[in-house]
Amino acid sequence: MSIAVRRDGLPPALVVVDGQSTFTQLEGPGRCDAAGRCALVLASDAGSSDYFLGSALPGLALRIASDGASAAASRWWPRERFYVASLALVLTLTIFGAYLLWRDVRRELRLADMRSQFVASVSHELKTPLTAIRMFAETLRMGRPADPKVRDGYLDTIVSESERLTRLLNNVLDFSRIESGGKSYQFACHDLAAIVETAAHTMRYPLAKQGFELAVDAGGDLPPIRIDPDAIEQAILNLLDNALKYSGTARRIELGLQRQGPYAVISVRDWGIGIGSVDRPRIFEKFFRATTPETRSTPGTGLGLTLVDHIVRSHGGFITVETALGAGSTFRIHLPIAVTGASDAALSAAADERVMPASAP
User: What is the chain's Cα-based Rg?
Assistant: First the structure.
Protein backbone atom coordinates (compact mmCIF):
# COMPACT_ATOMS: atom_id res chain seq x y z
CA MET A 1 0.00 0.00 0.00
CA SER A 2 1.34 3.45 -0.90
CA ILE A 3 0.42 6.79 0.60
CA ALA A 4 1.31 10.18 -0.91
CA VAL A 5 2.36 12.76 1.67
CA ARG A 6 2.35 16.50 0.90
CA ARG A 7 3.54 19.21 3.32
CA ASP A 8 3.66 22.94 2.76
CA GLY A 9 7.05 24.11 1.54
CA LEU A 10 8.41 20.60 1.03
CA PRO A 11 8.49 18.44 -2.06
CA PRO A 12 5.96 15.55 -2.18
CA ALA A 13 7.03 12.15 -0.82
CA LEU A 14 5.79 8.61 -1.42
CA VAL A 15 5.56 6.26 1.57
CA VAL A 16 5.27 2.52 0.91
CA VAL A 17 3.65 0.45 3.73
CA ASP A 18 3.34 -3.35 4.14
CA GLY A 19 -0.45 -3.46 4.44
CA GLN A 20 -0.83 -6.98 5.77
CA SER A 21 1.69 -6.44 8.56
CA THR A 22 0.21 -3.06 9.41
CA PHE A 23 -3.34 -4.41 9.52
CA THR A 24 -2.25 -7.21 11.82
CA GLN A 25 -0.52 -4.83 14.25
CA LEU A 26 -3.38 -2.36 14.24
CA GLU A 27 -6.16 -4.92 14.42
CA GLY A 28 -4.87 -6.51 17.65
CA PRO A 29 -5.10 -3.45 19.87
CA GLY A 30 -8.16 -2.20 18.06
CA ARG A 31 -10.49 -5.15 18.76
CA CYS A 32 -13.91 -4.21 20.03
CA ASP A 33 -14.79 -7.09 22.34
CA ALA A 34 -17.90 -5.41 23.72
CA ALA A 35 -19.39 -4.67 20.32
CA GLY A 36 -18.32 -7.85 18.64
CA ARG A 37 -15.64 -8.79 16.13
CA CYS A 38 -13.80 -5.82 14.45
CA ALA A 39 -11.53 -5.59 11.39
CA LEU A 40 -9.55 -2.94 9.49
CA VAL A 41 -10.41 -2.61 5.80
CA LEU A 42 -9.31 -0.34 2.96
CA ALA A 43 -11.39 2.73 2.44
CA SER A 44 -12.05 1.58 -1.09
CA ASP A 45 -13.69 -1.59 0.30
CA ALA A 46 -15.56 0.17 3.10
CA GLY A 47 -19.30 0.20 3.21
CA SER A 48 -21.78 2.69 4.55
CA SER A 49 -21.81 1.08 7.99
CA ASP A 50 -18.01 1.16 8.40
CA TYR A 51 -16.20 3.85 10.35
CA PHE A 52 -13.50 5.87 8.53
CA LEU A 53 -10.47 6.61 10.69
CA GLY A 54 -10.11 10.20 9.43
CA SER A 55 -7.20 12.13 8.06
CA ALA A 56 -4.71 10.59 10.44
CA LEU A 57 -5.13 7.26 8.69
CA PRO A 58 -6.54 8.03 5.28
CA GLY A 59 -7.53 5.05 3.24
CA LEU A 60 -8.46 2.89 6.30
CA ALA A 61 -11.83 2.13 7.85
CA LEU A 62 -13.01 0.13 10.87
CA ARG A 63 -15.61 -2.57 10.28
CA ILE A 64 -17.62 -3.75 13.33
CA ALA A 65 -19.40 -7.11 12.92
CA SER A 66 -22.06 -6.42 15.55
CA ASP A 67 -24.84 -8.01 13.52
CA GLY A 68 -22.70 -10.67 11.87
CA ALA A 69 -21.39 -14.11 12.73
CA SER A 70 -19.82 -13.08 16.06
CA ALA A 71 -23.06 -11.60 17.36
CA ALA A 72 -24.97 -14.64 16.16
CA ALA A 73 -22.51 -16.91 17.91
CA SER A 74 -22.77 -14.98 21.16
CA ARG A 75 -26.56 -15.04 20.85
CA TRP A 76 -26.86 -18.78 20.07
CA TRP A 77 -24.21 -20.20 22.39
CA PRO A 78 -26.30 -19.99 25.64
CA ARG A 79 -29.20 -21.70 23.85
CA GLU A 80 -26.93 -24.48 22.63
CA ARG A 81 -25.60 -24.95 26.15
CA PHE A 82 -29.18 -25.19 27.39
CA TYR A 83 -29.96 -27.85 24.80
CA VAL A 84 -26.84 -29.83 25.70
CA ALA A 85 -27.60 -29.60 29.43
CA SER A 86 -31.21 -30.69 28.81
CA LEU A 87 -30.05 -33.64 26.73
CA ALA A 88 -27.54 -34.65 29.43
CA LEU A 89 -30.28 -34.43 32.07
CA VAL A 90 -32.65 -36.57 30.00
CA LEU A 91 -29.93 -39.17 29.39
CA THR A 92 -29.05 -39.22 33.11
CA LEU A 93 -32.68 -39.69 34.13
CA THR A 94 -33.10 -42.42 31.50
CA ILE A 95 -30.03 -44.29 32.71
CA PHE A 96 -31.09 -43.91 36.35
CA GLY A 97 -34.60 -45.12 35.55
CA ALA A 98 -33.17 -48.10 33.67
CA TYR A 99 -31.00 -48.93 36.71
CA LEU A 100 -34.00 -48.77 39.05
CA LEU A 101 -35.99 -50.97 36.69
CA TRP A 102 -33.11 -53.46 36.47
CA ARG A 103 -32.77 -53.50 40.25
CA ASP A 104 -36.50 -54.07 40.77
CA VAL A 105 -36.63 -56.80 38.13
CA ARG A 106 -33.59 -58.49 39.67
CA ARG A 107 -35.16 -58.31 43.14
CA GLU A 108 -38.47 -59.69 41.87
CA LEU A 109 -36.68 -62.53 40.08
CA ARG A 110 -34.77 -63.34 43.25
CA LEU A 111 -37.97 -63.29 45.31
CA ALA A 112 -39.73 -65.42 42.70
CA ASP A 113 -36.89 -67.93 42.88
CA MET A 114 -37.08 -67.92 46.69
CA ARG A 115 -40.85 -68.41 46.57
CA SER A 116 -40.42 -71.29 44.15
CA GLN A 117 -37.91 -72.92 46.47
CA PHE A 118 -40.25 -72.21 49.39
CA VAL A 119 -43.18 -73.93 47.69
CA ALA A 120 -40.99 -76.94 46.82
CA SER A 121 -39.65 -77.12 50.38
CA VAL A 122 -43.11 -76.80 51.95
CA SER A 123 -44.46 -79.49 49.63
CA HIS A 124 -41.62 -81.81 50.62
CA GLU A 125 -41.98 -81.09 54.34
CA LEU A 126 -45.74 -81.62 54.16
CA LYS A 127 -45.35 -84.85 52.24
CA THR A 128 -42.79 -86.40 54.61
CA PRO A 129 -44.86 -86.39 57.84
CA LEU A 130 -48.06 -87.23 55.99
CA THR A 131 -46.38 -90.26 54.43
CA ALA A 132 -45.09 -91.43 57.82
CA ILE A 133 -48.48 -90.91 59.50
CA ARG A 134 -50.30 -92.83 56.78
CA MET A 135 -47.78 -95.69 56.75
CA PHE A 136 -47.85 -96.26 60.52
CA ALA A 137 -51.63 -95.78 60.71
CA GLU A 138 -52.20 -98.39 57.98
CA THR A 139 -49.80 -100.78 59.72
CA LEU A 140 -51.73 -100.42 62.99
CA ARG A 141 -55.05 -100.84 61.18
CA MET A 142 -53.92 -104.21 59.83
CA GLY A 143 -53.30 -105.34 63.41
CA ARG A 144 -49.55 -105.35 63.17
CA PRO A 145 -47.38 -105.46 65.11
CA ALA A 146 -48.62 -107.52 68.04
CA ASP A 147 -45.97 -106.30 70.48
CA PRO A 148 -47.51 -103.48 72.60
CA LYS A 149 -44.16 -101.66 72.86
CA VAL A 150 -43.78 -101.56 69.07
CA ARG A 151 -47.38 -100.39 68.73
CA ASP A 152 -46.69 -97.62 71.24
CA GLY A 153 -43.63 -96.65 69.21
CA TYR A 154 -45.75 -96.40 66.07
CA LEU A 155 -48.28 -94.26 67.92
CA ASP A 156 -45.50 -92.02 69.23
CA THR A 157 -44.25 -91.59 65.68
CA ILE A 158 -47.70 -90.63 64.47
CA VAL A 159 -48.05 -88.07 67.28
CA SER A 160 -44.55 -86.70 66.63
CA GLU A 161 -45.11 -86.34 62.88
CA SER A 162 -48.49 -84.73 63.53
CA GLU A 163 -46.84 -82.17 65.80
CA ARG A 164 -44.17 -81.56 63.18
CA LEU A 165 -46.86 -81.01 60.58
CA THR A 166 -48.67 -78.63 62.93
CA ARG A 167 -45.48 -76.62 63.50
CA LEU A 168 -44.91 -76.29 59.76
CA LEU A 169 -48.47 -75.14 59.13
CA ASN A 170 -48.27 -72.70 62.03
CA ASN A 171 -45.07 -71.22 60.60
CA VAL A 172 -46.66 -70.71 57.20
CA LEU A 173 -49.87 -69.25 58.66
CA ASP A 174 -48.01 -66.96 61.05
CA PHE A 175 -45.78 -65.72 58.26
CA SER A 176 -48.86 -64.97 56.16
CA ARG A 177 -50.36 -63.00 59.06
CA ILE A 178 -47.11 -61.09 59.58
CA GLU A 179 -46.96 -60.18 55.88
CA SER A 180 -50.54 -58.93 55.95
CA GLY A 181 -50.07 -57.11 59.27
CA GLY A 182 -52.67 -59.26 61.03
CA LYS A 183 -50.41 -61.14 63.45
CA SER A 184 -51.35 -60.54 67.09
CA TYR A 185 -50.12 -61.91 70.42
CA GLN A 186 -51.95 -62.72 73.64
CA PHE A 187 -49.76 -61.43 76.46
CA ALA A 188 -50.09 -62.61 80.04
CA CYS A 189 -47.75 -63.48 82.91
CA HIS A 190 -46.43 -67.06 82.61
CA ASP A 191 -43.71 -69.28 84.01
CA LEU A 192 -41.03 -69.26 81.31
CA ALA A 193 -39.29 -72.34 82.74
CA ALA A 194 -42.45 -74.39 82.24
CA ILE A 195 -42.67 -73.26 78.63
CA VAL A 196 -39.05 -74.27 78.02
CA GLU A 197 -39.73 -77.70 79.56
CA THR A 198 -42.82 -78.14 77.38
CA ALA A 199 -40.85 -77.35 74.23
CA ALA A 200 -38.12 -79.79 75.28
CA HIS A 201 -40.71 -82.49 75.89
CA THR A 202 -42.24 -81.90 72.45
CA MET A 203 -38.88 -82.30 70.70
CA ARG A 204 -37.45 -85.06 72.88
CA TYR A 205 -38.93 -87.95 70.89
CA PRO A 206 -37.93 -86.78 67.36
CA LEU A 207 -34.47 -85.92 68.69
CA ALA A 208 -34.07 -89.28 70.41
CA LYS A 209 -35.29 -91.03 67.25
CA GLN A 210 -32.29 -89.59 65.37
CA GLY A 211 -29.84 -90.31 68.17
CA PHE A 212 -29.64 -86.82 69.68
CA GLU A 213 -28.97 -86.04 73.30
CA LEU A 214 -30.95 -83.03 74.51
CA ALA A 215 -29.52 -81.44 77.63
CA VAL A 216 -31.95 -79.06 79.35
CA ASP A 217 -31.07 -76.54 82.05
CA ALA A 218 -34.13 -74.47 82.89
CA GLY A 219 -32.99 -73.34 86.30
CA GLY A 220 -32.62 -69.82 87.55
CA ASP A 221 -34.74 -67.65 89.78
CA LEU A 222 -37.14 -66.04 87.32
CA PRO A 223 -40.43 -64.39 88.17
CA PRO A 224 -43.47 -64.81 85.88
CA ILE A 225 -42.88 -62.91 82.63
CA ARG A 226 -45.47 -61.20 80.47
CA ILE A 227 -45.36 -63.20 77.21
CA ASP A 228 -47.47 -65.09 74.70
CA PRO A 229 -46.72 -68.70 75.74
CA ASP A 230 -47.67 -70.29 72.42
CA ALA A 231 -45.49 -67.84 70.44
CA ILE A 232 -42.47 -68.29 72.73
CA GLU A 233 -42.85 -72.08 72.58
CA GLN A 234 -43.01 -71.86 68.80
CA ALA A 235 -39.80 -69.80 68.74
CA ILE A 236 -38.00 -72.37 70.93
CA LEU A 237 -39.27 -75.26 68.79
CA ASN A 238 -38.05 -73.52 65.62
CA LEU A 239 -34.57 -73.11 67.10
CA LEU A 240 -34.50 -76.73 68.27
CA ASP A 241 -35.70 -77.90 64.86
CA ASN A 242 -32.91 -75.89 63.18
CA ALA A 243 -30.37 -77.42 65.55
CA LEU A 244 -31.65 -80.89 64.65
CA LYS A 245 -31.45 -80.21 60.91
CA TYR A 246 -28.02 -78.59 60.84
CA SER A 247 -26.08 -80.54 63.47
CA GLY A 248 -24.27 -82.60 60.85
CA THR A 249 -22.64 -85.57 62.55
CA ALA A 250 -22.86 -84.00 66.03
CA ARG A 251 -25.56 -85.45 68.26
CA ARG A 252 -25.81 -83.09 71.20
CA ILE A 253 -28.05 -80.06 71.69
CA GLU A 254 -28.25 -77.86 74.75
CA LEU A 255 -31.35 -75.89 75.79
CA GLY A 256 -30.89 -73.44 78.62
CA LEU A 257 -32.70 -70.73 80.54
CA GLN A 258 -31.01 -68.22 82.82
CA ARG A 259 -31.22 -64.66 84.01
CA GLN A 260 -28.86 -61.98 82.72
CA GLY A 261 -29.55 -58.61 84.30
CA PRO A 262 -33.00 -57.37 83.23
CA TYR A 263 -33.41 -60.24 80.74
CA ALA A 264 -34.44 -63.87 80.76
CA VAL A 265 -32.19 -65.61 78.23
CA ILE A 266 -33.22 -68.78 76.39
CA SER A 267 -30.26 -70.41 74.62
CA VAL A 268 -30.10 -73.22 72.07
CA ARG A 269 -26.64 -74.53 71.25
CA ASP A 270 -25.49 -77.12 68.73
CA TRP A 271 -22.12 -78.35 67.48
CA GLY A 272 -23.16 -78.63 63.84
CA ILE A 273 -22.20 -77.06 60.51
CA GLY A 274 -22.51 -73.45 61.70
CA ILE A 275 -23.07 -70.39 59.51
CA GLY A 276 -20.41 -68.78 57.32
CA SER A 277 -19.52 -65.09 57.47
CA VAL A 278 -21.13 -64.45 54.06
CA ASP A 279 -24.53 -65.74 55.17
CA ARG A 280 -24.62 -64.38 58.74
CA PRO A 281 -26.12 -60.94 57.94
CA ARG A 282 -29.07 -62.51 56.08
CA ILE A 283 -30.11 -65.44 58.26
CA PHE A 284 -33.23 -63.61 59.55
CA GLU A 285 -34.46 -62.68 56.07
CA LYS A 286 -37.59 -64.38 54.80
CA PHE A 287 -37.04 -67.38 52.53
CA PHE A 288 -33.27 -67.10 52.95
CA ARG A 289 -31.24 -70.26 53.45
CA ALA A 290 -27.47 -70.57 53.72
CA THR A 291 -25.61 -71.50 50.56
CA THR A 292 -23.67 -74.49 51.92
CA PRO A 293 -24.11 -77.95 50.35
CA GLU A 294 -25.42 -79.30 53.67
CA THR A 295 -28.17 -76.68 53.69
CA ARG A 296 -29.20 -77.33 50.09
CA SER A 297 -29.57 -81.04 50.83
CA THR A 298 -31.70 -80.37 53.94
CA PRO A 299 -35.39 -79.54 53.49
CA GLY A 300 -36.55 -76.24 54.93
CA THR A 301 -38.78 -73.24 54.23
CA GLY A 302 -36.47 -70.37 55.21
CA LEU A 303 -39.13 -68.99 57.57
CA GLY A 304 -38.13 -70.40 60.96
CA LEU A 305 -35.64 -67.74 61.99
CA THR A 306 -37.74 -64.98 60.42
CA LEU A 307 -40.63 -65.93 62.70
CA VAL A 308 -38.36 -66.27 65.74
CA ASP A 309 -37.00 -62.77 65.16
CA HIS A 310 -40.51 -61.32 64.76
CA ILE A 311 -41.81 -63.06 67.90
CA VAL A 312 -38.88 -61.93 70.03
CA ARG A 313 -39.05 -58.32 68.83
CA SER A 314 -42.79 -58.25 69.42
CA HIS A 315 -42.04 -59.15 73.04
CA GLY A 316 -39.64 -56.21 73.38
CA GLY A 317 -36.57 -58.45 73.26
CA PHE A 318 -33.84 -59.35 70.79
CA ILE A 319 -31.98 -62.41 69.56
CA THR A 320 -28.23 -62.89 69.24
CA VAL A 321 -26.28 -65.54 67.37
CA GLU A 322 -22.78 -66.79 68.04
CA THR A 323 -21.70 -68.93 65.10
CA ALA A 324 -18.95 -69.86 62.69
CA LEU A 325 -18.72 -72.29 59.81
CA GLY A 326 -17.95 -75.74 61.17
CA ALA A 327 -18.05 -74.58 64.83
CA GLY A 328 -21.78 -74.85 65.54
CA SER A 329 -24.23 -72.13 66.55
CA THR A 330 -25.66 -70.70 69.74
CA PHE A 331 -28.91 -68.74 69.49
CA ARG A 332 -29.94 -66.65 72.49
CA ILE A 333 -33.40 -65.15 72.95
CA HIS A 334 -33.38 -62.16 75.32
CA LEU A 335 -36.79 -61.38 76.84
CA PRO A 336 -37.22 -58.43 79.22
CA ILE A 337 -38.28 -59.50 82.68
CA ALA A 338 -39.89 -56.09 83.16
CA VAL A 339 -40.54 -53.33 80.65
CA THR A 340 -37.97 -50.68 81.53
CA GLY A 341 -35.91 -48.04 79.79
CA ALA A 342 -32.91 -50.31 80.16
CA SER A 343 -34.48 -52.92 77.90
CA ASP A 344 -35.05 -50.36 75.14
CA ALA A 345 -31.43 -49.22 75.35
CA ALA A 346 -30.17 -52.78 75.25
CA LEU A 347 -32.38 -53.55 72.28
CA SER A 348 -31.00 -50.65 70.25
CA ALA A 349 -27.43 -51.46 71.29
CA ALA A 350 -27.74 -55.09 70.23
CA ALA A 351 -29.50 -54.43 66.92
CA ASP A 352 -26.26 -54.08 64.94
CA GLU A 353 -24.26 -56.80 66.70
CA ARG A 354 -26.70 -59.64 67.17
CA VAL A 355 -24.79 -61.98 64.81
CA MET A 356 -21.30 -62.74 66.11
CA PRO A 357 -18.54 -65.21 65.18
CA ALA A 358 -18.43 -68.26 67.40
CA SER A 359 -15.61 -68.84 69.82
CA ALA A 360 -13.57 -71.97 69.53
CA PRO A 361 -15.59 -75.05 70.53
Answer: 44
